[in-house]
Design goal:
Length: 119
């Protein structure tokens, strides 16, 4: 499978997700919809893993570069971060705690289901 075809497949999924995101009455990001659409297409077998595996491996290996624009944007707005740093820290601590708790409970639930519902 050539790289151009893999790029076109992922681009098409992103384009479809953008269109659907604009049509939905709720504010759901196109990137989240694209991820869900890709998962569904892979899950039902319409799209084979090999048709996007090479490009996904490339993105995974170079994931750091995808965060550079966001990091530069933060550095450009350090004044705004300084003004609301305490509130941001509280939000990060609270949301991080909820995320950790949800992950721990999910792991326990999956382990319990894997053991046939026994404790």
């Amino acid at each position: 499978m050539n790289v151009i075809r893999q790029i076109l497949i992922l681009f098409g999924i992103c384009l479809a997700a953008t269109v659907v995101s604009e049509l939905l009455p709720l504010p759901l990001p196109a990137s989240v919809l694209a991820f869900l659409l890709l998962a569904v297409l892979l899950g039902v077998g319409i799209l084979k893993e090999g048709s996007v595996a090479g490009l996904c491996d490339f993105f995974q290996k170079n994931l750091t570069f995808l965060f550079l624009p966001a990091g530069v944007g933060l550095v450009e707005r350090l004044d705004l971060l300084a003004q609301s740093g305490a509130a941001l820290a509280v939000v990060c601590l609270v949301s991080g705690s909820f995320t950790f708790a949800a992950a721990a409970l999910t792991v326990r639930l999956v382990q319990r289901v894997g053991k046939g519902g026994r404790r």
